[in-house]
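Lab notebook, bench 4. Still working through the backlog of constructs that have no structural model yet. Next entry is a single chain of 390 residues. Request: give me the structure tokens for it.
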Amino acid sequence: MNGKTLDRPWLLIAEREITTKLRDKTFIGSTLVMLLIGAVATILPALIVGKSGPDKIAVIDDAATRVVQQASTTKGGKGYETVRAADRPAAEKLVTDGDVKAALLPGTDGYIVLGKDKVDSGIESGLREASATVGTQANAAKAGLTPAELHAGTKVELRLLKPGPLPDLVSHFVKIGLALVFYMTALGFGMMIAQSVVQEKESRVVEILAASVPIRALLWGKVLGNAVLAMGQIVVIAATALIGLLITNQAGVLEVVAPVAGWFVIFFVLGFVALAGLWAVAGSLATRQEDLGSTTLPGQMILMIPFFFSVFAGASATKIASFVPIASSMSMPGRMLTEDVPVWQPLLAILFLLVATVLIIRLGARLYERTLLQTGRRLGYREAIALKAS
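Model written out:
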């Protein structure tokens, strides 16, 4: 303790919150679990793809082998692997026994893709396209044309008027991930804040603290300390995810996610601070740990409803939610990944969120002062608002 912390008691409370949590096994365990989830989410998909190996295709001649090789080249070089069979019955047996996904056999005018009960559509289309390519090149050679001359004027380029920053599937998962990070962090730390307040009330520690530190300083310290811990936890999780992306050669995702990450931090901090004040009030309304189920319910609903909105709602509803305080912390960063959002929209959403955060914190501080030392019974929100300042 030094002169600076005595002059700023909220800083002393923040330090106390941080040091207490860093020694708390529950906090350490939850951080390790989230680290594990982040690592698994980035590394496991790549490992699964890597272990699956190329699809095996049975062939009985060199012509079919060239077709399969062409299909594999089109797919990136490791899409298909040929398995040479002695004759057609041997190839059919490989298919029947499940040793290969399909067989490419000579047909009347080309090839036959032979499967057991069905053939994967990707395999069929890949072999069909490769067969056309190889056949066209062979016919061109017979006619005295090079492949370039044969395909002149047939190139098709894809251009999008409003291109998305990421492929749909990738952006959808990243969007869910950002919303989930805010939801889980705000909920987890929120419950810890509420439980901490109740523990201090039950042990009468709060009465000692309130006698030497202004009650508002207790609130500011709790909010600041837990905000620092939450940001630290997210930084560690982000670092783990970054390492996972680099290990699995998915660094291209970072080029798009990195700019949005800055916006996410702003929305996260403002939304978390606003909710932290409400969670502290939820703890001050309770007198026992059992009371938290009812006093924290409004905070849980404020988090849960926007989360499902940001993940499952349609484009129009998500756009509206991205301007609504608290909901914008989960909706706007996701929109910026999947849409071309003008810069004025996140700035306007931040302004709305900033105003709401100030109002919520001011209301929370007022209720916190009125209810923190009330230890007789659990109070309701309406009752707390009606209480007069002591």
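Notes after review: Residues 168-202 form the longest helix (35 residues). The CA atoms of residues 35 and 237 lie 5 Å apart. Flag for follow-up if needed.
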